[in-house]
Amino acid sequence: MDLDRAHGLLTNRTTQFNTGSSFNEAYRQKLIDNLSLDSQGRPFKIIVFRGCPKLCRKSIHFVDELRQEVATIFDKDCKQTPYRCIPKGEKRVLDAARLRNDYYANIMSWGNNNILAVALSPELCLRNSEDQRVQKLFQVRGGNDWPTSVTWSEDARTLAFGYMCSSLQLWDAESSKLIRNLDGHSGRIASTAWNGRILTSGSSDKSIINYDVRAANSMASCIKQHADESTEGNRLASGGNENLLYIWEAPKMSSSKFLHRLSDHCAAVKALAWCPYQYNVLASGGGLSDGVLRYGIHKKESALTA
Questions:
Q1: Which of 23, 178, 211, 300 is most buried, by the most CB atoms less than 10 A from its CB?
Q2: Which segments constitute the CDC20/Fizzy WD40 domain (predicted)?
Q3: Is the CB of residue 139 less than 8 Å from the CB of residue 122?
């Protein structure tokens, strides 16, 4: 009844146990006799069952069955992805009486820290969406200048502000302090966008400038392609008052050679946005005379599939 000892006696061929090696052979012979002969000493009849070829199946382990079940559930969830529920009414209404009515201004930005930055004429306010607290970051001195573009950085630590009088500033949102001024534009800066450490700005002086904010000489490249103001996205996409949309490759922007030139809009290209989870999908919106929102997949061999 000592199973460990019996297993050792059956499997060990070299070590001599105290009971002697003769016990090993006797035990083996006993097993052979009992497994091959019945109680009357006659050999067992072995019947082979092969089954029907149409009905026989390969044996599947329990773990494999579980894996197949999980894979089936996963495939079903992927195919039946529910659409995002978009509310039909507002959740909260905020008082913004000093919000400037400017077609070219882009004065709101919602950061990854869940804080909404809004320019209300000369003031820049931060609203925390969790505790509903409102903080005034700064106020522009002088009545002829005000913020015309506001953009959070990707890490939600820095705010970029473009101004009516061509200034471009970086502010630390936590300390409410000015980090630096960026030069290069001579007109209203209506659009700014971040791509990692690179800040891109579009201005009414018909230029697009890329700034490397880590460098002392921060201007990385400057492009003058549009007939008027520009807005930009991620790769980079830019649009202007001449109804044209350009797509640029970041490594080649210094040469002012665009990748694609699209002319599908019938009015100024007012809004551009790259998809945050599918890098090659771009959405663009036209002005009042166009009234169309276009989106499509950007490829190297084709421009934009609307």
A1: 211
A2: 94-294
A3: yes
